Amino acid sequence: MQIFLTIAVVILSLVFFIAEWLPVDITAFGVMIVLILLKLVTPEQGISGFSNSATITVMAMFILSAGIARTGAIQIVSDFLNKWGGNNLRRQILVLGAIVGPITAFINNTAVVAVFLPIVEDWCRKQRISPSKILMPLSFVTVLGGMITLIGTSTNVLASGLSEQLGYGAFGLFQFTALGLITFTIGLIYLAIAAPKLLPNRKAPNSDVLSEDYALTDYVSEIIITPGSNLIGQSLRSSQLQRKFDIDVLELIRNDAQFPQPLADKVLQAGDILIVRGGRPCLLSLKAQRGIEILPDVKFGKESPEENLTSGEEGIAEILILSNSNLNGSTLKELRFRQRYNATVLAIRRGEELVRERLGQVPLRFGDLLLVQGPKESFVGLQTSRDLLVFEQRDVETLRRDKAWIAIAIGLAVVIVAAFDWQPILVTSLVGVFLMIVTGCLKPGELYESVRWDIIFLLAGLIPLGIAMDKSGTTQWLADNLVALGGDLSGYWILEFFFIITALLTEILSNNASVVLILPVAVKVATTLHLNPYAFMFAVTFAASNSFMTPIGYQTNTMVYGPGGYKFLDFFRFGGMLNLIMAIITPPLIILLYGLKP
Q: How many whole angstroms separate alpha carbon 192 and alpha carbon 195?
């Protein structure tokens, strides 16, 4: 009965993970509660994920990564990118990989991509390269680089914790570094060779790219207040244009004088020209009811809508919703976005989808790209927000440059002390967090904001599932059946099977969920067949991070999806081949480096 109930919980959790009815961290938290209610784990075992060494280590690494990022230590290497990148695309990808890969071996890769996205965008603009040629390789090299050390990804740390829980001890900091370096090098070579041929030019590398990418002429228009309009004498706030007609007023032009935001209290007069965001049906409805005239597109003259909206003190920019953003799940209306940031959202790009109507009612998601317009001084405030990433290089004033070398020294000390086994990585990382605060690299309030709490809750919720599978005998039952089915297969093909099944599973689940479900079963199969359990643990760990085929399988893929202007199939076409290469080379390399027999 316990095996049946545990398998039922696993299947139910898989359905929720795949269907995404709830965020993955909430699903994992729900799994923990269900396991406790079904008495598959004790209440103490159910909440043990929150005190697990893997969870605490991952939390500490998020904070250390934030400390290094906030001091601008990562930006220092951008000079090397500009100096050595050159004009050849293959060389540029190799240089980018050589810089970013080693960084992501020690720093959380989502933090690295967040820092490098505006740097790479600016670099592409200067070099006249389409960002779609570079951004996907940027994501992939951070994934590959994260497999070089234990602390490169939360998945590695979780796998280490599971290894310790199963009685094999935690992984060493550089235990699979040899394997990680080889796979990283081969992967980088593939990216440099294949990107110029397989990645399309989804975004033009010119200065007017926003006009083309967002088709501004389709929904940014000029309207004039006619002498007979019933809007005359009303303020924009009292006219309720946004609420009743889904119209945003971006600028007001009166007698050749331009008035930027805020405009809510401006009283409208006959002859006023308004630059507005709104679809053609909304404008026609406004014309019929309020007596305005829609000026022809030619009114813009030789200027593009983008140039028209960026005149004087006004600006236009793209901003990305980050994974740990407090804006996730809320609508622009609920957030009072315009009042909060003094900027208007013109459109939302969600992967291939471009949302331009009823923007106030659209719940924001991680990876959404917002096109915003407003006073240029407002973008400074946006740059300092930890909820958003502005696609302009962060101002020096917003970073603690004078603390950069202190942050780097703390990070190196954490790694060196753990590498020589003077203290466990859990202890060194916690000491590093304390030093980041004491030295001023991070402010106390930033400590909590730097943690990816969704990942923490995901880990804490999934760890009890591993305990329930082991305690109920489900892991052993699954292992016995797999051994019976594949008893005639060689050790190599069994290792290959676990690599492939984990790699496929991680494309539809989170990589952490894949490790929790597959790693214990793989170890049981290995011990039953008298094979090296470490070989199987490494295979599952590496396969769980080999998520290249979809933009939703890994957080960094989601981050570059919108900015690169990619289509869903671009990932399958370019990343699928990288998945195949890793599946072919990794298991034999594991056997060569670590042996198939214990």
A: 6
Give the chain's end-to-end CA distance (angstroms, integer): 34
Token representation of residue 384: 């300092």
Which of 485, 10, 419 has its CA nearest to residue 174?
Answer: 419
Task: Work out how many domains the chain is built from and give that number.
Answer: 2
CATH number of the domain at 274, please. Answer: 3.30.70.1450
Top pLDDT among 328 and 581 is at 581
The closest of 551, 501, 545, 504 to 521, measured between CA atoms, is: 501
Torsion over CA: 208, 213, 217, 220 (sign): negative
Q: Residue 415: which H helix or E strand, with range?
A: helix 404-419
Q: Under 8 Å CB-to-CB from 43, ≥6 apart: which residues?
A: 36
What does 229-294 look like in DSSP terms, one character per residue? -TTTT-BHHHHTHHHHH--EEEEEEETTEEE-S--TTPBP-TT-EEEEE--HHHHHHHHHHH-EEE
Q: At residue 477, does pLDDT exceed 80?
A: yes
171 pLDDT above the threshold of 60 = yes
Angle at CA of residue 165, ends 162 and 168, nearest 5°: 90
| Residue 286 maps to a domain | yes
| DSSP one-letter string for 80-147 | HHHHH--S-HHHHHHHHHHHHHHHHTTS-HHHHHHHHHHHHHHHHHHHT--GGGTHHHHHHHHHHHTT
pLDDT of amino acid 533? 94
Q: Please state, as a whole number, how many other Cβ atoms lie within 10 Å of the Cβ of residue 581.
A: 18
Q: How confident is the model at residue 405 (pLDDT cuts 50, 70, 90)?
A: confident
- Domain containing residue 299: 209-303
Question: pTM for the full model?
Answer: 0.82
Provide the CB-side half-sphere exposure for 198 (13 A, CA). 18
Domain identity same for 213 and 199: no
The answer to whether residue 229 sits within a structural domain is yes
Using CA atoms, how far apart are residues 227 and 231, in angstroms rounded to an integer? Answer: 10
Whether residue 363 lies inside any domain: the answer is: no
In a domain, 322, yes or no: no
Q: List beta partners, residue 248.
A: 277
Whether residue 563 has a cis bond before it, omega within 30° of 0: no
CA 340/CA 80 separation, integer angstroms: 37
- Give Rg (Cα) of the chain: 26
- d(CA 59, CA 416) in angstroms, rounded, equals 19
Given a contact cutoff of 8 angstroms between Cβ atoms, the answer to whether 358 and 311 are in contact is no
What tokens were used for 381? 């405030």
Beta bridge partners of 225: 292
Q: How far apart are CA 323 and CA 329, in angstroms?
A: 11
pLDDT, tens digit, 9 for 90 and up, residues 289-300:
777 777 764 344
Chain-centre distance of CA 571, in angstroms? 15
